[in-house]
Write a structure and sequence with these properties.
The chain has a single domain, classed as 3-Layer(aba) Sandwich (Rossmann fold), CATH 3.40.50. 27% of the residues lie in helices and 23% in strands. The protein is built from five helices and eleven strands. Strand 9, helix 3 and strand 10 form a beta-alpha-beta unit. The two termini are 31 Å apart.
Length: 261
């Protein structure tokens, strides 16, 4: 089964055929939403809405551990995620999609591991995203004619506020390319669970650093989000049948076995 974690239109189960919604209990409490299970192109898919169906859960209050655990319980082996993001680079303009290959963690208070009792997992994360999924998404975006970027570094901040101009400029000095509030620890927990994970960052704005552009606001994000969500739906519907057939050459599933001393 392939999992989708998103929102901004991707919580719409109508992209699935023959779907049903399932409530999953976890040792970490309730996931953000019920999980819609159905098929895309004959492939079984589970969709979870990260911030709840009404976008009522703040980034810091997302129960990331419950979300990943629930998808694991359902048999999900690969996760495709979406995230609205701000661009820290001129070339990554609003409407573009970025498939990052690295992240910087700028969060402060999130539960970032399943192994916080009895034993410690030092999960290797030199390559934190799945190259097999990233390649499949890039090929799908090229086929659809979407403007996409093969790699980049996403920096995840705590939120829910947006960055100051000074912070935005600092993140550029750290070589971050896009900024969001959701990828970490989601991708870390997926790796601990032995699940392949790749996020598609949907650019909505230029954050706060660009002096010639209006700084980020909710109004600006919402304005671009609808188009981005439709593009993400097309992208996943194009990529998922290919992903189901792709040869698994990554180490995502096995990395946890090397994490214990």
């Amino acid at each position: 089964m392939i999992g989708i974690i998103g929102g901004s239109g991707l919580e719409d189960p109508e992209i699935l055929t023959g779907f049903e919604e399932k409530k999953v209990k976890t040792p970490y409490g309730e996931p953000s939403s019920q999980i819609a299970i159905g098929k895309i192109g004959g492939q079984k898919v589970a969709i979870l809405s990260r911030h709840g169906k009404k976008h009522s859960i703040t980034p810091s209050n997302v129960n990331f551990r419950a979300n990943i655990w629930a998808l694991k319980e359902l048999g999900v082996k690969q996760i495709l995620a979406t995230s609205a993001c701000g661009s820290l680079r001129e070339k990554m303009s609003p409407g573009n999609i970025v498939f990052p290959d690295q992240f910087i963690d700028w969060t402060k208070k999130r539960e970032a591991t399943f192994f916080d009792q009895d034993k410690v997992a030092h999960i290797p994360l030199a390559e934190p995203f799945c190259p097999v999924l990233r390649k499949a998404l890039l090929e799908a975006s090229e086929k659809l004619g979407l403007k996409a970027h093969w790699n980049g570094t996403v920096i995840t901040i705590e939120g829910p506020r947006f960055s100051t101009r000074a912070e935005s400029s600092m993140f550029r000095l750290l070589n971050a390319d896009v900024i969001n509030m959701s990828t970490v620890p989601e991708c870390v927990l997926a790796r601990e669970a032995g699940i392949c994970y790749q996020v598609a960052c949907l650019v909505t704005d230029y954050d706060s650093w660009h002096l010639q552009k209006e700084h980020v606001s909710v109004e600006m994000v919402v304005k671009v989000m609808k188009t981005n969500a439709e593009n993400a739906k097309k992208l996943f519907m194009q990529a998922i049948p290919k992903i189901a057939q792709a040869k698994k050459t990554c180490s995502c599933e096995k990395d946890i076995s090397k994490a214990f001393i």
